[in-house]
Amino acid sequence: MSGPDEPDLRERRNAHFNLAKLGARPEEYLSAFYDSMGDAINAGDESDRVLAVWCLTSWPVLAAVRREPSPVEIPPDAVRGLDDDGGRPARLRRLSASR
After folding, report:
1. DSSP 18-43
2. Strand boundaries in the chain, DSSP class E
3. Model pTM above 0.90
């Protein structure tokens, strides 16, 4: 189980599977999607989500079907919360408080 400062490994694997393997693309960041989570399992966790979309005729999805790589251009001003290990999410990287 992950601590409060580490992303859940299941979340990283799920993101990698959907974005890298299935060719989904992030469409929208949804802050506090489920509001406050107070149940015994999720108490204190954030409920932010990213809406993923699949355009079934887009080149990333078609490449995924063919098991071909589909590199994504990352804008130079993008903020990364995870380090990269050969195209896979590796570990949480703390962002400075000044950002």
Report:
1. IIIIS--EEEEEETTTT----STTTT
2. 25-30, 49-53, 82-85, 88-92
3. no
